[in-house]
Amino acid sequence: MSTSARSTSVGSATGAPVATDGARPATSTAVRRRSRRRRTRWVGLAFAALPLAVYALVVLVPLGQSVQYSFYTWDGVSTPSWAGFDNYRSFVTDPVLRSTLGHVLVLICFFALLPIVLGLLSAALLTRTKQPGMAVYRWIFFLPQVMTTVVIALVFKRIYAPDGPLNTALRAVGLDSLARTWLGDFTWALPALGLIGTWVTFGFCMVLFISGTSAISPELYDAARTDGAGPVREFFAVTLPGLRGQLAVALTLTITAALRTFDLVWITTHGGPGTSTLTPAVALYKAAFQNPQVGLAAAIGVVMAALCLVIAVVITRVSERD
Amino acid sequence: MVSKTERIVNYVVLTVMALLVLFPVGTFVVAALSPDRSGRPVKVSEFQWGNFATAWHDAGFARAITISIVIAVCVVAGQVLLALLGGYAFGVLGVVGDKVLFPIVLLGMMISLEAIIVPLYYQFRTFGLTNTLPGIILIHLGMGVPFGIFWMRAAFRALPRSAFESAEMDGAGPVRMLRSMAAPMAKPAVYTLILLSFMWTWNDYFLSLVFLHGSNQTATVALGVFQGRYVTQINLMAAGGLIVAAPVLVLYVVFQRKFISGMLAGAIKE
Protein backbone atom coordinates (compact mmCIF):
# COMPACT_ATOMS: atom_id res chain seq x y z
CA MET A 1 0.00 0.00 0.00
CA SER A 2 2.53 2.53 1.13
CA THR A 3 5.02 1.60 -1.57
CA SER A 4 2.49 2.04 -4.31
CA ALA A 5 1.51 5.41 -2.93
CA ARG A 6 5.11 6.53 -2.82
CA SER A 7 5.95 5.34 -6.30
CA THR A 8 2.96 7.08 -7.73
CA SER A 9 3.99 10.28 -6.08
CA VAL A 10 7.59 10.02 -7.26
CA GLY A 11 6.49 8.83 -10.64
CA SER A 12 4.50 11.91 -11.19
CA ALA A 13 7.70 13.90 -10.66
CA THR A 14 10.30 12.07 -12.83
CA GLY A 15 8.58 9.50 -14.97
CA ALA A 16 11.34 6.92 -14.65
CA PRO A 17 10.08 5.23 -11.46
CA VAL A 18 6.75 4.63 -13.16
CA ALA A 19 8.53 1.92 -15.07
CA THR A 20 9.72 0.38 -11.83
CA ASP A 21 6.23 0.49 -10.56
CA GLY A 22 4.94 -1.29 -13.60
CA ALA A 23 7.73 -3.87 -13.38
CA ARG A 24 7.28 -4.62 -9.73
CA PRO A 25 4.35 -7.06 -9.82
CA ALA A 26 5.99 -8.82 -12.76
CA THR A 27 9.26 -9.20 -10.87
CA SER A 28 7.56 -10.61 -7.84
CA THR A 29 5.73 -13.27 -9.89
CA ALA A 30 9.01 -14.06 -11.64
CA VAL A 31 10.66 -14.47 -8.27
CA ARG A 32 7.79 -16.59 -7.09
CA ARG A 33 7.94 -18.70 -10.23
CA ARG A 34 11.67 -19.11 -9.90
CA SER A 35 11.38 -20.13 -6.29
CA ARG A 36 8.67 -22.56 -7.23
CA ARG A 37 10.86 -23.99 -9.94
CA ARG A 38 13.67 -24.32 -7.42
CA ARG A 39 11.23 -26.13 -5.18
CA THR A 40 10.16 -28.52 -7.94
CA ARG A 41 13.84 -29.23 -8.58
CA TRP A 42 14.15 -30.34 -4.98
CA VAL A 43 11.00 -32.43 -5.45
CA GLY A 44 12.71 -33.79 -8.56
CA LEU A 45 15.71 -34.79 -6.49
CA ALA A 46 13.38 -36.57 -4.08
CA PHE A 47 11.84 -38.45 -7.02
CA ALA A 48 15.25 -39.35 -8.41
CA ALA A 49 16.67 -40.29 -5.01
CA LEU A 50 15.61 -43.93 -5.09
CA PRO A 51 16.90 -44.77 -8.57
CA LEU A 52 20.07 -42.81 -7.95
CA ALA A 53 20.65 -44.60 -4.64
CA VAL A 54 20.24 -48.05 -6.22
CA TYR A 55 22.52 -47.03 -9.08
CA ALA A 56 25.18 -45.68 -6.73
CA LEU A 57 25.02 -48.75 -4.52
CA VAL A 58 25.27 -51.29 -7.34
CA VAL A 59 27.41 -49.49 -9.91
CA LEU A 60 29.30 -46.45 -8.65
CA VAL A 61 30.52 -47.74 -5.30
CA PRO A 62 31.72 -51.09 -6.70
CA LEU A 63 33.39 -49.22 -9.56
CA GLY A 64 35.48 -47.31 -7.05
CA GLN A 65 36.14 -50.50 -5.10
CA SER A 66 37.30 -52.23 -8.29
CA VAL A 67 40.01 -49.63 -8.66
CA GLN A 68 40.90 -50.04 -4.98
CA TYR A 69 40.98 -53.87 -5.17
CA SER A 70 43.17 -53.73 -8.24
CA PHE A 71 46.08 -52.39 -6.16
CA TYR A 72 46.05 -55.34 -3.77
CA THR A 73 46.97 -59.00 -3.83
CA TRP A 74 44.09 -60.94 -2.31
CA ASP A 75 42.97 -64.58 -2.43
CA GLY A 76 39.45 -63.71 -1.30
CA VAL A 77 39.93 -65.06 2.23
CA SER A 78 43.08 -63.90 4.00
CA THR A 79 44.20 -60.32 4.57
CA PRO A 80 44.89 -58.40 1.36
CA SER A 81 48.38 -57.03 0.84
CA TRP A 82 49.39 -53.93 -1.11
CA ALA A 83 50.58 -54.72 -4.62
CA GLY A 84 50.99 -51.34 -6.27
CA PHE A 85 50.72 -51.63 -10.03
CA ASP A 86 51.73 -55.32 -10.09
CA ASN A 87 48.28 -56.46 -11.23
CA TYR A 88 48.32 -54.04 -14.12
CA ARG A 89 51.88 -54.98 -14.95
CA SER A 90 50.65 -58.57 -15.48
CA PHE A 91 49.20 -57.44 -18.81
CA VAL A 92 52.80 -57.01 -19.94
CA THR A 93 54.65 -59.68 -17.96
CA ASP A 94 52.13 -62.55 -18.08
CA PRO A 95 52.14 -64.01 -21.60
CA VAL A 96 48.74 -65.68 -21.12
CA LEU A 97 47.04 -62.47 -20.02
CA ARG A 98 48.81 -60.55 -22.76
CA SER A 99 47.57 -63.05 -25.32
CA THR A 100 43.95 -62.28 -24.37
CA LEU A 101 44.40 -58.79 -25.82
CA GLY A 102 45.67 -60.33 -29.06
CA HIS A 103 42.62 -62.61 -29.13
CA VAL A 104 40.42 -59.56 -28.75
CA LEU A 105 42.03 -58.02 -31.83
CA VAL A 106 41.20 -61.18 -33.82
CA LEU A 107 37.65 -61.12 -32.46
CA ILE A 108 37.30 -57.45 -33.42
CA CYS A 109 37.95 -58.40 -37.06
CA PHE A 110 35.08 -60.87 -36.90
CA PHE A 111 32.68 -59.03 -34.59
CA ALA A 112 33.19 -55.54 -36.00
CA LEU A 113 35.00 -55.27 -39.32
CA LEU A 114 33.48 -58.19 -41.21
CA PRO A 115 29.84 -57.44 -40.20
CA ILE A 116 30.28 -53.75 -41.00
CA VAL A 117 31.70 -54.52 -44.44
CA LEU A 118 28.86 -56.98 -45.08
CA GLY A 119 26.33 -54.46 -43.81
CA LEU A 120 27.71 -51.65 -45.97
CA LEU A 121 27.85 -53.92 -48.99
CA SER A 122 24.21 -54.90 -48.66
CA ALA A 123 23.15 -51.34 -47.92
CA ALA A 124 24.97 -50.26 -51.09
CA LEU A 125 23.40 -52.99 -53.22
CA LEU A 126 19.90 -52.23 -52.06
CA THR A 127 17.97 -49.52 -53.81
CA ARG A 128 16.80 -46.93 -51.38
CA THR A 129 13.10 -47.48 -51.77
CA LYS A 130 10.39 -48.86 -49.60
CA GLN A 131 10.61 -52.55 -50.21
CA PRO A 132 7.42 -54.53 -49.59
CA GLY A 133 8.23 -57.30 -47.14
CA MET A 134 11.11 -55.36 -45.53
CA ALA A 135 9.54 -55.87 -42.10
CA VAL A 136 9.95 -59.64 -42.43
CA TYR A 137 13.61 -59.32 -43.40
CA ARG A 138 14.24 -56.92 -40.56
CA TRP A 139 12.69 -59.40 -38.17
CA ILE A 140 15.06 -62.08 -39.39
CA PHE A 141 18.15 -59.85 -39.27
CA PHE A 142 17.42 -58.89 -35.67
CA LEU A 143 16.77 -62.45 -34.56
CA PRO A 144 20.33 -63.07 -33.22
CA GLN A 145 20.01 -59.93 -31.09
CA VAL A 146 17.14 -61.32 -29.04
CA MET A 147 18.48 -64.85 -28.62
CA THR A 148 20.33 -65.56 -25.41
CA THR A 149 24.03 -66.14 -26.08
CA VAL A 150 23.88 -69.51 -24.34
CA VAL A 151 21.53 -70.78 -27.03
CA ILE A 152 23.59 -69.16 -29.79
CA ALA A 153 26.64 -70.95 -28.40
CA LEU A 154 24.77 -74.26 -28.51
CA VAL A 155 23.58 -73.63 -32.08
CA PHE A 156 27.15 -73.19 -33.24
CA LYS A 157 28.59 -75.90 -31.05
CA ARG A 158 26.41 -78.21 -33.09
CA ILE A 159 27.40 -76.61 -36.42
CA TYR A 160 31.10 -77.00 -35.59
CA ALA A 161 30.79 -80.50 -34.07
CA PRO A 162 33.01 -83.27 -35.54
CA ASP A 163 30.02 -84.76 -37.37
CA GLY A 164 28.06 -81.51 -37.53
CA PRO A 165 26.64 -79.77 -40.62
CA LEU A 166 29.85 -77.90 -41.46
CA ASN A 167 32.07 -80.98 -41.62
CA THR A 168 29.33 -82.97 -43.35
CA ALA A 169 29.12 -80.29 -46.02
CA LEU A 170 32.91 -80.22 -46.45
CA ARG A 171 33.05 -83.99 -46.84
CA ALA A 172 30.15 -83.94 -49.26
CA VAL A 173 32.08 -81.70 -51.64
CA GLY A 174 35.24 -83.74 -51.27
CA LEU A 175 37.12 -81.42 -48.95
CA ASP A 176 37.61 -84.08 -46.29
CA SER A 177 41.05 -82.71 -45.46
CA LEU A 178 39.48 -79.47 -44.27
CA ALA A 179 37.04 -81.16 -41.91
CA ARG A 180 38.17 -80.93 -38.30
CA THR A 181 37.01 -80.42 -34.72
CA TRP A 182 36.71 -76.70 -35.22
CA LEU A 183 36.34 -75.65 -31.59
CA GLY A 184 39.04 -78.07 -30.40
CA ASP A 185 41.66 -76.85 -32.84
CA PHE A 186 44.44 -74.55 -31.62
CA THR A 187 44.47 -72.57 -34.86
CA TRP A 188 40.83 -72.61 -35.85
CA ALA A 189 38.94 -72.32 -32.56
CA LEU A 190 39.36 -68.54 -32.30
CA PRO A 191 38.29 -67.72 -35.88
CA ALA A 192 35.40 -70.19 -35.49
CA LEU A 193 34.27 -68.29 -32.39
CA GLY A 194 34.76 -65.03 -34.26
CA LEU A 195 32.40 -66.15 -37.01
CA ILE A 196 29.69 -66.68 -34.40
CA GLY A 197 30.15 -63.02 -33.54
CA THR A 198 29.87 -62.12 -37.21
CA TRP A 199 26.60 -64.02 -37.38
CA VAL A 200 25.27 -62.20 -34.31
CA THR A 201 26.16 -58.66 -35.36
CA PHE A 202 25.90 -58.41 -39.15
CA GLY A 203 22.11 -58.30 -39.25
CA PHE A 204 22.09 -55.51 -36.73
CA CYS A 205 24.65 -53.55 -38.77
CA MET A 206 22.58 -54.11 -41.90
CA VAL A 207 19.37 -52.81 -40.38
CA LEU A 208 21.26 -49.82 -39.01
CA PHE A 209 22.84 -48.97 -42.37
CA ILE A 210 19.73 -49.58 -44.45
CA SER A 211 17.72 -47.23 -42.26
CA GLY A 212 20.65 -44.80 -42.47
CA THR A 213 20.76 -44.72 -46.26
CA SER A 214 17.04 -44.07 -46.46
CA ALA A 215 17.66 -40.89 -44.46
CA ILE A 216 20.24 -39.56 -46.95
CA SER A 217 18.73 -36.88 -49.16
CA PRO A 218 17.97 -38.24 -52.68
CA GLU A 219 19.22 -34.91 -54.09
CA LEU A 220 22.77 -35.89 -53.13
CA TYR A 221 22.45 -39.03 -55.23
CA ASP A 222 20.96 -37.10 -58.14
CA ALA A 223 23.80 -34.61 -57.96
CA ALA A 224 26.39 -37.40 -57.92
CA ARG A 225 24.74 -39.01 -60.91
CA THR A 226 24.65 -35.82 -62.96
CA ASP A 227 28.35 -35.46 -62.17
CA GLY A 228 28.73 -38.81 -63.88
CA ALA A 229 29.57 -40.84 -60.78
CA GLY A 230 29.30 -44.58 -61.14
CA PRO A 231 27.88 -46.79 -58.38
CA VAL A 232 31.30 -47.19 -56.72
CA ARG A 233 32.10 -43.49 -56.60
CA GLU A 234 28.53 -42.77 -55.56
CA PHE A 235 29.02 -45.13 -52.62
CA PHE A 236 32.23 -43.47 -51.46
CA ALA A 237 31.09 -39.91 -52.15
CA VAL A 238 27.53 -40.03 -50.84
CA THR A 239 26.55 -43.21 -49.01
CA LEU A 240 29.62 -43.68 -46.82
CA PRO A 241 29.79 -40.06 -45.55
CA GLY A 242 26.02 -40.13 -44.99
CA LEU A 243 26.33 -43.20 -42.78
CA ARG A 244 28.99 -41.70 -40.54
CA GLY A 245 26.77 -41.62 -37.45
CA GLN A 246 25.55 -45.19 -37.95
CA LEU A 247 29.11 -46.36 -38.53
CA ALA A 248 30.18 -44.86 -35.23
CA VAL A 249 27.35 -46.63 -33.41
CA ALA A 250 28.05 -49.96 -35.11
CA LEU A 251 31.78 -49.76 -34.45
CA THR A 252 31.36 -48.84 -30.79
CA LEU A 253 28.83 -51.58 -30.09
CA THR A 254 30.58 -54.36 -31.96
CA ILE A 255 34.10 -53.59 -30.72
CA THR A 256 32.86 -53.44 -27.14
CA ALA A 257 31.03 -56.72 -27.70
CA ALA A 258 34.25 -58.32 -28.95
CA LEU A 259 36.19 -57.01 -25.98
CA ARG A 260 33.58 -58.29 -23.53
CA THR A 261 32.99 -61.77 -25.03
CA PHE A 262 32.32 -64.21 -22.22
CA ASP A 263 29.22 -66.38 -22.62
CA LEU A 264 30.12 -67.69 -26.08
CA VAL A 265 33.61 -68.74 -25.05
CA TRP A 266 32.59 -70.11 -21.68
CA ILE A 267 29.90 -72.37 -23.14
CA THR A 268 31.86 -73.56 -26.16
CA THR A 269 35.56 -73.79 -25.26
CA HIS A 270 36.15 -72.49 -21.69
CA GLY A 271 39.04 -70.54 -23.25
CA GLY A 272 40.67 -73.64 -24.68
CA PRO A 273 42.17 -75.61 -26.22
CA GLY A 274 45.04 -74.55 -24.01
CA THR A 275 44.50 -70.82 -23.74
CA SER A 276 43.95 -70.28 -27.44
CA THR A 277 40.50 -68.69 -27.05
CA LEU A 278 40.97 -67.04 -23.67
CA THR A 279 39.38 -63.56 -23.58
CA PRO A 280 39.86 -60.90 -20.90
CA ALA A 281 36.39 -61.57 -19.51
CA VAL A 282 37.08 -65.30 -19.18
CA ALA A 283 40.46 -64.56 -17.59
CA LEU A 284 38.64 -62.23 -15.18
CA TYR A 285 36.11 -64.91 -14.27
CA LYS A 286 38.81 -67.49 -13.66
CA ALA A 287 40.89 -65.08 -11.58
CA ALA A 288 37.92 -63.88 -9.56
CA PHE A 289 36.10 -67.11 -8.83
CA GLN A 290 38.16 -70.19 -9.66
CA ASN A 291 41.62 -69.74 -8.17
CA PRO A 292 41.06 -66.40 -6.54
CA GLN A 293 43.52 -63.67 -7.43
CA VAL A 294 40.91 -61.05 -6.68
CA GLY A 295 43.18 -58.05 -7.20
CA LEU A 296 44.20 -59.27 -10.64
CA ALA A 297 40.56 -59.88 -11.58
CA ALA A 298 39.64 -56.35 -10.51
CA ALA A 299 42.53 -54.97 -12.56
CA ILE A 300 41.30 -56.85 -15.65
CA GLY A 301 37.84 -55.38 -15.07
CA VAL A 302 39.21 -51.86 -14.74
CA VAL A 303 41.31 -52.22 -17.89
CA MET A 304 38.31 -53.54 -19.82
CA ALA A 305 36.11 -50.67 -18.64
CA ALA A 306 38.78 -48.12 -19.49
CA LEU A 307 39.26 -49.61 -22.97
CA CYS A 308 35.49 -49.57 -23.59
CA LEU A 309 35.29 -45.95 -22.53
CA VAL A 310 38.30 -44.87 -24.60
CA ILE A 311 37.00 -46.70 -27.68
CA ALA A 312 33.57 -45.09 -27.34
CA VAL A 313 34.99 -41.61 -26.85
CA VAL A 314 37.54 -41.89 -29.68
CA ILE A 315 34.98 -43.22 -32.16
CA THR A 316 32.46 -40.52 -31.24
CA ARG A 317 35.11 -37.79 -31.55
CA VAL A 318 36.35 -39.02 -34.91
CA SER A 319 32.84 -39.41 -36.31
CA GLU A 320 31.86 -35.90 -35.26
CA ARG A 321 34.97 -34.28 -36.74
CA ASP A 322 34.44 -32.55 -40.05
CA MET B 1 11.70 -45.05 -60.60
CA VAL B 2 12.88 -48.40 -59.44
CA SER B 3 13.26 -50.87 -62.28
CA LYS B 4 12.21 -54.46 -62.05
CA THR B 5 15.80 -55.73 -62.15
CA GLU B 6 16.75 -53.48 -59.25
CA ARG B 7 13.83 -54.81 -57.28
CA ILE B 8 14.90 -58.37 -57.99
CA VAL B 9 18.51 -57.62 -56.99
CA ASN B 10 17.19 -56.19 -53.73
CA TYR B 11 15.30 -59.34 -52.93
CA VAL B 12 18.22 -61.58 -53.86
CA VAL B 13 20.58 -59.66 -51.56
CA LEU B 14 18.11 -59.62 -48.70
CA THR B 15 17.21 -63.27 -49.10
CA VAL B 16 20.82 -64.45 -49.16
CA MET B 17 21.54 -62.49 -45.99
CA ALA B 18 18.37 -63.76 -44.35
CA LEU B 19 19.25 -67.36 -45.16
CA LEU B 20 22.68 -66.88 -43.60
CA VAL B 21 20.91 -65.92 -40.37
CA LEU B 22 18.23 -68.58 -40.55
CA PHE B 23 20.30 -71.58 -41.59
CA PRO B 24 22.08 -72.21 -38.24
CA VAL B 25 18.84 -71.73 -36.31
CA GLY B 26 17.03 -74.01 -38.73
CA THR B 27 19.48 -76.88 -38.32
CA PHE B 28 19.16 -76.44 -34.56
CA VAL B 29 15.37 -76.71 -34.65
CA VAL B 30 15.59 -79.79 -36.87
CA ALA B 31 18.15 -81.33 -34.50
CA ALA B 32 15.81 -80.72 -31.55
CA LEU B 33 13.13 -82.81 -33.24
CA SER B 34 15.38 -85.65 -34.32
CA PRO B 35 14.93 -89.07 -32.71
CA ASP B 36 18.63 -89.61 -33.36
CA ARG B 37 20.99 -88.49 -30.57
CA SER B 38 23.38 -86.99 -33.11
CA GLY B 39 20.62 -84.62 -34.20
CA ARG B 40 20.52 -86.02 -37.72
CA PRO B 41 17.69 -84.42 -39.74
CA VAL B 42 14.67 -86.65 -40.34
CA LYS B 43 11.37 -86.52 -42.22
CA VAL B 44 8.55 -84.49 -40.65
CA SER B 45 6.62 -87.66 -39.90
CA GLU B 46 9.49 -88.97 -37.80
CA PHE B 47 9.80 -85.84 -35.64
CA GLN B 48 10.18 -86.77 -32.01
CA TRP B 49 8.28 -84.11 -30.08
CA GLY B 50 8.94 -85.96 -26.85
CA ASN B 51 12.50 -84.52 -26.86
CA PHE B 52 11.14 -81.36 -25.29
CA ALA B 53 9.53 -83.23 -22.42
CA THR B 54 12.67 -85.30 -21.87
CA ALA B 55 14.92 -82.26 -21.88
CA TRP B 56 12.51 -80.36 -19.60
CA HIS B 57 12.61 -83.19 -17.13
CA ASP B 58 16.32 -84.08 -17.32
CA ALA B 59 17.58 -80.50 -17.10
CA GLY B 60 15.33 -79.65 -14.16
CA PHE B 61 13.86 -76.73 -16.08
CA ALA B 62 10.71 -76.66 -13.96
CA ARG B 63 12.66 -75.12 -11.09
CA ALA B 64 15.17 -73.11 -13.14
CA ILE B 65 12.50 -71.50 -15.29
CA THR B 66 10.44 -70.64 -12.22
CA ILE B 67 13.51 -68.90 -10.77
CA SER B 68 14.09 -67.05 -14.03
CA ILE B 69 10.47 -65.94 -14.15
CA VAL B 70 10.51 -64.70 -10.54
CA ILE B 71 13.70 -62.73 -11.16
CA ALA B 72 12.48 -61.31 -14.47
CA VAL B 73 9.08 -60.24 -13.10
CA CYS B 74 10.62 -58.52 -10.06
CA VAL B 75 13.29 -56.83 -12.14
CA VAL B 76 10.83 -55.61 -14.77
CA ALA B 77 8.46 -54.20 -12.15
CA GLY B 78 11.26 -52.53 -10.22
CA GLN B 79 12.91 -51.29 -13.37
CA VAL B 80 9.75 -49.60 -14.59
CA LEU B 81 9.15 -47.96 -11.21
CA LEU B 82 12.72 -46.64 -10.98
CA ALA B 83 12.67 -45.49 -14.60
CA LEU B 84 9.35 -43.65 -14.14
CA LEU B 85 10.59 -41.88 -11.02
CA GLY B 86 14.01 -41.02 -12.46
CA GLY B 87 12.76 -40.18 -15.94
CA TYR B 88 10.03 -37.93 -14.58
CA ALA B 89 12.49 -36.19 -12.27
CA PHE B 90 15.13 -35.56 -14.96
CA GLY B 91 12.70 -34.97 -17.81
CA VAL B 92 9.90 -32.93 -16.26
CA LEU B 93 10.61 -31.67 -12.76
CA GLY B 94 14.33 -30.97 -13.12
CA VAL B 95 16.75 -32.12 -10.46
CA VAL B 96 19.03 -30.11 -8.21
CA GLY B 97 22.53 -30.67 -9.56
CA ASP B 98 21.36 -32.38 -12.77
CA LYS B 99 24.24 -30.80 -14.72
CA VAL B 100 26.48 -33.21 -12.82
CA LEU B 101 24.08 -36.01 -11.98
CA PHE B 102 22.72 -36.68 -15.46
CA PRO B 103 26.11 -37.25 -17.13
CA ILE B 104 26.98 -39.59 -14.25
CA VAL B 105 23.81 -41.54 -14.96
CA LEU B 106 24.58 -41.69 -18.70
CA LEU B 107 28.09 -42.89 -17.92
CA GLY B 108 26.45 -45.96 -16.41
CA MET B 109 25.33 -47.10 -19.87
CA MET B 110 28.98 -47.47 -20.80
CA ILE B 111 30.13 -49.22 -17.63
CA SER B 112 30.25 -52.92 -18.27
CA LEU B 113 29.41 -55.53 -15.67
CA GLU B 114 33.02 -56.76 -15.73
CA ALA B 115 34.18 -53.51 -14.20
CA ILE B 116 32.11 -53.99 -11.06
CA ILE B 117 31.47 -57.70 -10.72
CA VAL B 118 34.46 -58.50 -8.51
CA PRO B 119 33.73 -56.09 -5.62
CA LEU B 120 30.00 -56.71 -6.04
CA TYR B 121 30.51 -60.39 -5.44
CA TYR B 122 32.80 -60.01 -2.42
CA GLN B 123 30.71 -57.23 -0.85
CA PHE B 124 27.48 -59.16 -1.37
CA ARG B 125 29.15 -62.20 0.15
CA THR B 126 29.89 -60.18 3.28
CA PHE B 127 26.20 -59.29 3.56
CA GLY B 128 25.05 -62.83 2.76
CA LEU B 129 23.40 -61.70 -0.49
CA THR B 130 25.20 -64.08 -2.85
CA ASN B 131 23.10 -66.98 -4.04
CA THR B 132 19.90 -65.13 -3.07
CA LEU B 133 17.24 -63.83 -5.42
CA PRO B 134 16.97 -60.38 -3.76
CA GLY B 135 20.71 -59.97 -4.27
CA ILE B 136 20.69 -60.63 -8.00
CA ILE B 137 17.47 -58.64 -8.49
CA LEU B 138 19.11 -55.64 -6.82
CA ILE B 139 22.09 -55.87 -9.19
CA HIS B 140 19.89 -56.11 -12.27
CA LEU B 141 17.96 -53.07 -11.04
CA GLY B 142 21.07 -50.99 -10.44
CA MET B 143 22.57 -51.90 -13.80
CA GLY B 144 19.29 -50.98 -15.49
CA VAL B 145 18.84 -47.53 -13.93
CA PRO B 146 20.90 -45.59 -16.53
CA PHE B 147 19.00 -46.93 -19.54
CA GLY B 148 15.68 -46.62 -17.69
CA ILE B 149 16.21 -42.97 -16.81
CA PHE B 150 17.56 -42.19 -20.27
CA TRP B 151 14.60 -43.89 -21.92
CA MET B 152 11.75 -42.51 -19.80
CA ARG B 153 13.25 -39.02 -19.67
CA ALA B 154 13.15 -38.88 -23.46
CA ALA B 155 9.59 -40.22 -23.45
CA PHE B 156 8.35 -37.64 -20.93
CA ARG B 157 10.08 -34.80 -22.75
CA ALA B 158 8.28 -35.76 -25.94
CA LEU B 159 4.89 -35.18 -24.26
CA PRO B 160 3.19 -31.85 -24.97
CA ARG B 161 4.09 -29.23 -22.33
CA SER B 162 0.54 -27.88 -22.37
CA ALA B 163 -0.75 -31.08 -20.78
CA PHE B 164 1.49 -30.53 -17.77
CA GLU B 165 0.54 -26.86 -17.52
CA SER B 166 -3.18 -27.50 -17.51
CA ALA B 167 -2.79 -30.28 -14.95
CA GLU B 168 -0.78 -27.89 -12.82
CA MET B 169 -3.59 -25.32 -13.11
CA ASP B 170 -5.95 -27.94 -11.74
CA GLY B 171 -3.67 -28.08 -8.73
CA ALA B 172 -2.31 -31.58 -9.33
CA GLY B 173 0.80 -32.37 -7.31
CA PRO B 174 3.83 -34.02 -8.90
CA VAL B 175 2.90 -37.48 -7.67
CA ARG B 176 -0.64 -37.29 -9.00
CA MET B 177 0.59 -35.78 -12.24
CA LEU B 178 3.00 -38.64 -12.80
CA ARG B 179 0.48 -41.30 -11.83
CA SER B 180 -2.66 -40.12 -13.53
CA MET B 181 -1.28 -38.21 -16.50
CA ALA B 182 2.37 -38.54 -17.50
CA ALA B 183 2.77 -42.29 -17.01
CA PRO B 184 -0.42 -43.22 -18.90
CA MET B 185 0.53 -40.87 -21.73
CA ALA B 186 3.99 -42.44 -22.00
CA LYS B 187 2.57 -45.97 -22.13
CA PRO B 188 4.18 -46.97 -25.46
CA ALA B 189 7.64 -46.19 -24.08
CA VAL B 190 6.85 -48.09 -20.89
CA TYR B 191 5.83 -51.17 -22.89
CA THR B 192 9.09 -51.09 -24.84
CA LEU B 193 11.01 -50.75 -21.59
CA ILE B 194 9.14 -53.75 -20.16
CA LEU B 195 10.03 -55.89 -23.19
CA LEU B 196 13.70 -54.89 -23.29
CA SER B 197 14.12 -55.24 -19.55
CA PHE B 198 12.53 -58.69 -19.63
CA MET B 199 14.76 -59.77 -22.48
CA TRP B 200 17.97 -58.54 -20.86
CA THR B 201 17.13 -60.18 -17.55
CA TRP B 202 15.98 -63.46 -19.06
CA ASN B 203 18.97 -63.72 -21.41
CA ASP B 204 21.55 -62.91 -18.74
CA TYR B 205 24.14 -65.59 -18.20
CA PHE B 206 27.25 -64.02 -16.65
CA LEU B 207 25.58 -62.47 -13.61
CA SER B 208 23.53 -65.59 -12.87
CA LEU B 209 26.58 -67.81 -13.28
CA VAL B 210 28.51 -65.77 -10.73
CA PHE B 211 25.77 -65.18 -8.18
CA LEU B 212 23.43 -68.17 -8.22
CA HIS B 213 24.32 -71.81 -7.65
CA GLY B 214 22.67 -75.14 -7.03
CA SER B 215 18.93 -74.96 -6.63
CA ASN B 216 18.91 -71.23 -7.43
CA GLN B 217 20.16 -71.65 -10.99
CA THR B 218 18.42 -69.63 -13.68
CA ALA B 219 17.23 -71.18 -16.95
CA THR B 220 20.31 -70.02 -18.89
CA VAL B 221 22.75 -71.41 -16.32
CA ALA B 222 20.79 -74.66 -16.05
CA LEU B 223 20.99 -74.96 -19.82
CA GLY B 224 24.76 -74.47 -19.66
CA VAL B 225 25.06 -77.27 -17.10
CA PHE B 226 22.67 -79.49 -19.05
CA GLN B 227 24.59 -79.18 -22.32
CA GLY B 228 27.80 -80.06 -20.49
CA ARG B 229 26.27 -83.30 -19.27
CA TYR B 230 24.56 -84.18 -22.55
CA VAL B 231 27.41 -83.53 -24.98
CA THR B 232 26.60 -86.67 -26.91
CA GLN B 233 22.83 -86.16 -27.02
CA ILE B 234 22.58 -83.29 -29.43
CA ASN B 235 18.83 -83.67 -29.95
CA LEU B 236 18.06 -83.18 -26.24
CA MET B 237 20.58 -80.37 -25.94
CA ALA B 238 18.91 -78.55 -28.83
CA ALA B 239 15.45 -79.14 -27.40
CA GLY B 240 16.60 -77.66 -24.10
CA GLY B 241 18.03 -74.66 -25.92
CA LEU B 242 14.75 -73.99 -27.66
CA ILE B 243 12.84 -74.21 -24.37
CA VAL B 244 15.06 -71.53 -22.83
CA ALA B 245 14.94 -69.31 -25.91
CA ALA B 246 11.17 -69.66 -26.34
CA PRO B 247 9.76 -66.96 -24.00
CA VAL B 248 11.76 -64.12 -25.55
CA LEU B 249 11.24 -65.46 -29.07
CA VAL B 250 7.47 -65.54 -28.57
CA LEU B 251 7.51 -61.94 -27.33
CA TYR B 252 9.71 -61.02 -30.28
CA VAL B 253 7.23 -62.53 -32.74
CA VAL B 254 4.36 -60.59 -31.19
CA PHE B 255 6.06 -57.27 -30.47
CA GLN B 256 8.78 -57.13 -33.13
CA ARG B 257 8.32 -53.42 -33.83
CA LYS B 258 8.82 -52.44 -30.21
CA PHE B 259 11.87 -54.67 -29.84
CA ILE B 260 13.60 -53.37 -32.95
CA SER B 261 12.79 -49.70 -32.43
CA GLY B 262 13.77 -49.94 -28.77
CA MET B 263 17.10 -51.61 -29.46
CA LEU B 264 17.94 -49.22 -32.30
CA ALA B 265 17.03 -46.20 -30.17
CA GLY B 266 18.93 -47.63 -27.22
CA ALA B 267 21.98 -48.17 -29.40
CA ILE B 268 21.94 -44.74 -30.94
CA LYS B 269 21.17 -42.94 -27.68
CA GLU B 270 21.03 -39.11 -27.95
Q: What would you say this structure looks like, in words?
A:
The complex is a heterodimer of chains A (322) and B (270). Chain A has 322 residues and is mainly alpha-helical. Chain A has two domains: 2-69, no CATH class; 88-320, MetI-like fold, CATH 1.10.3720.10. Helix content of chain A is 76%, strand content 1%. In chain A, strands 1-2 form a two-stranded antiparallel sheet. In chain A, α4 (95-125) packs parallel to α8 (189-213) and α9 (218-226) runs antiparallel to α10. Chain A is flat. Chain A starts with a helix and ends with a helix. Residues 1-24 of chain A have low confidence and may be disordered. With 270 residues, chain B is mostly helical. Chain B has two domains: 4-51, no CATH class; 59-268, MetI-like fold. Chain B contains 13 helices and no strands. Chain B starts with a helix and ends with a helix. The mean pLDDT of chain B is 89. At the A-B interface, α2, α4, α5, α6 and α8 of A face α1, α3, α4, α5 and α6 of B.
**What CATH architecture of the largest domain in chain A do you see?**
Orthogonal Bundle
Helical fraction of chain B: over 70%
- Helix-strand category of chain B: mainly alpha
State the distance separating the first and last CA atoms of chain A: 62 Å
Q: Can you write the helix and strand succession of chain A as a string? A: HHEEHHHHHHHHHHHH
Output the number of helix runs of chain A. 14
CATH domain topology of the largest domain in chain A: MetI-like fold
Unreliable spans of chain A: 1-24
Number of domains of chain A: 2
Strand content of chain B: under 5%
The most extensive interface, with participating residues per chain, is: A-B, 95 and 90 residues
Please identify the top-level CATH class of the largest domain in chain A.
Mainly Alpha
CATH topology of the largest domain in chain B: the name is: MetI-like fold
